[in-house]
Amino acid sequence: MKLSLSLAFSALVLLEVSTVVFAQARLSNETDMKALLEFKSQVAENKREVLASWNNTSPLCDWVGVTCGRKQERVISLDLGGFKLSGAISPSIGNLSFLRLLNLADNSFGDTIPREVGLLFRLQYLNMSHNLLEGRIPTSLLNCSRLSTLDLSSNHLGHGVPSELGSLSKLAVLSLDRNNLTGRFPASLGNLTSLRKLDFAYNLMEGEIPDDVARLTQVVFFQISENSFSGVFPPALYNISSLEYLALAGNSFSGELKAGFGDLLPNLRELILGVNRFTGAIPITLGNISNLERFHISTNNLTGSIPSSFGKLRNLRELGIGLNSLGTNSFSDLEFIGALANCTQLAFLDAGYNRLQGELPASLANLSTKLTSLSLGGNRISGTIPRDIGNLISLQELGLEANLLTGELPVLDLYSNGISGELPSYFDKMTQLHKIHLNSNSFHGRIPKSIGRCRNLLDLWIDTNRLNGTIPREILQIPSLAYIDLSSNLLSGTLPEEVGKLELLVGLGVSNNKLSGHIPQTLGGCLSMEFLFLQGNSFDGAFPDISRLVSLANVDISNNNLSGHIPQYLANFTVLRNLNLSMNNFEGRVPTTGVFRNATEVSVFGNKNLCGGIREMQLKPCIVHASPSPRKPLSLRKKIASGVGIGVASLLLIIFVASLCWFKKRSKKKKKKNASGDDEEGGGGSNVVDEWLRLVLQVGIRCSEEYPRDRMGVAEALRELISVRSKFFSSKTTNTELSPRDAMQSSPQEWMLDADMHTVG
């Protein structure tokens, strides 16, 4: 009996405890639900659709982005990364007291980070990167003592880095890069002895790096690039032998690097020190960092030789040492190139714009077949290009410009040198090339068809040489081409129609050659074109239809033999700023709208049959012709009227012809009387007769027009003839000759224009 009572009592107690726990859990669950619904209310209304499951009817733990604990139905994870949400982050987020993970990255949240985030004392992971957050980093984060990852990168956060972050002893990742943070590097961060990654790049921080950083002995990734930090290379960093990635580029660090650099930091994989003020020599011990893959120290003030010890770095992929003062004014300056032949993974080499001297070694052709970019320009390198450089089958960019190279080019790509000879025929071995810049040299011979095998080519610049022959159709079938410049050579033949296949072509230059024939109509298919230079050739025929090339900004087709009318659609090209049509055989009216409104942007001189245009072009006026319109058959009345008009005109002409005979007879008598006069006077009478006859015939023709609307009336004809009579037969006029000065004032072209204008009237 006692046993039964005891069991019953125990069951009752257990039931009561379960009821209380369930009630508390439900109450806590409701707290989380309320907090999240409040969070949702602060999300921009047009972005809430993705949170449609967040409502009072759906179980909390089934909401999108929400994860609950197993024992208690409390929210332990809120992962909304990449949901494209916007709006503000609600302070209610601080009520999710069991939260361990909060990921709001890759959204568009604005406003500030609510200080209530500091209430999440269980939080271990906080990521609000790639948003639009501004204001300060809340100091309340110091209460999140379990935090191991804090990522607030790529926002608009300002002010300084809170020193309170130094109390987060479990922090392993601290990413605050790409913000507007100012101030100094907090010394308190030296307390973060568990830290493995620190990234403050692309901010506005300044000052020196404190020695406290030396205590970050677990750090693997340390990046503070693109700030305004100064001082010598931070001595504290030499103590962090665990470093694998170190980036200090884009600051104002100065001084020399320690000679034992490579022995102090032996685990480095990437070392980025470019764009600073470092001086002295490159430490030879860098060759001891066996795992080094990337080393960039371009744009500094380094001197001395380039260590051949780089050749020991079998994993080296990138070596950037350009824009320094490296070199010893000796022929040994380029010995490092031979050593780098051992670096079989090398893909990028930049030693350009230093003070390197000596002949370009043949070992250049022995570099890694993975090399895509090679720059040695801006030095004092002499000699010739190695014949076997074609072994570099992955090469995309080769820069050897502004050196002292001579001789024939056995293979490839150098501008502004004095290289001569023919272009090589084996470009087909270098199919990964993106740019060929061989302009401004002395190459001769034909353009190799093998260039057409470079199917990834973007730029082909071989202008300003002495190349001859025709343009190979093969090079106009490279679909990736954006710029072609073959100008200032001796090329002949036509411009191949294949040019129309280059839909990505932005610029085409074939000016100042010996090209002829029609400009192909297919040119109108180059829909990306912005620059077109065809001047200085012998192209003929009409202007091609390029009405779809609405992106054209600069067009020069001057000094050719083109004919026909100037297309009106050119006036509709809104970005066209320079148009040169001069020295051709264009005819007809010049438009007056669009680019043609500005005489400084359009040139049409040397086309003698053009007319119209704006006043500044100083072209002759256009002769206006009445455009014929459909006519109805003439009625009987109109035919009779027409016959009467023609008869009157004929009668008038007979009368005036008789007068003409009398006038000529009178002139002969006068000439005999003035036999002693000069020839000039006699000639003047003849001119007067010709002018008189022209005016009479003009009246007669206008009276004889077929259609009444074009025909001069009888009354008007009489007035015109009386006017002519008064001009030439007035009894008060004793001298009917025109003076030479008067004759010069009216050119034959002006007479034609006047006659035609009267006809229209």
Observed structural traits:
single chain, about 750 residues, alpha/beta, 15-stranded mixed sheet, nine-stranded parallel sheet, 8 helices, flat, disordered N terminus
Explained architecture:
The chain is built from eight helices and 44 strands. It is of the alpha/beta class and 761 residues long. Helix 4 (636-673) packs antiparallel against helix 5 and helix 5 (679-703) runs antiparallel to helix 6 (714-729). It has a 15-stranded mixed sheet, with no helix packed on it. Strands 28-30-32-34-36-38-40-42-44 form a nine-stranded parallel sheet, with no helix packed on it. An eight-stranded parallel sheet has the order 29-31-33-35-37-39-41-43, with no helix packed on it.
Topology:
Blueprint lengths: L1 H40 L24 E3 L6 E5 L6 E3 L12 E3 L4 E3 L14 E3 L6 E2 L13 E3 L4 E2 L15 E3 L21 E3 L6 E2 L13 E3 L4 E5 L12 E3 L4 E5 L4 H4 L5 E3 L4 E4 L13 E3 L4 E2 L15 E3 L14 H5 L8 E3 L6 E3 L13 E3 L4 E4 L13 E3 L4 E2 L14 E3 L12 E3 L4 E4 L13 E3 L4 E4 L13 E3 L4 E4 L13 E3 L4 E5 L12 E3 L4 E5 L11 E3 L4 E4 L13 E3 L4 E6 L11 E2 L5 E4 L23 H38 L5 H25 L10 H16 L10 H6 L2 H13 L1
Parallel strand pairs: 2-4, 3-5, 4-6, 6-8, 7-9, 8-10, 10-11, 11-13, 12-14, 13-15, 14-16, 15-17, 16-18, 17-19, 18-20, 19-21, 21-22, 22-24, 23-25, 24-26, 25-27, 28-30, 29-31, 30-32, 31-33, 32-34, 33-35, 34-36, 35-37, 36-38, 37-39, 38-40, 39-41, 40-42, 41-43, 42-44
Antiparallel strand pairs: 1-2
Subcellular location: Cell membrane
Protein name: non-specific serine/threonine protein kinase
Organism: Thlaspi arvense
Low-confidence stretches: 1-25, 636-642, 670-685, 730-761
How many extended strands?
A: 44
Radius of gyration over alpha carbons? 44 Å
Overall outline = flat
Average residue-wise pLDDT: 83
Structural class: alpha/beta
Widest sheet: strand ordering: 1-2-4-6-8-10-11-13-15-17-19-21-22-24-26
For the sheet with most strands, the description reads:
15 strands, mixed
| Helix content percent band | 10-25%
Distance separating the two termini: 136 Å
**Helical segment count:** 8
Note the beta-strand portion. Answer: 15-25%
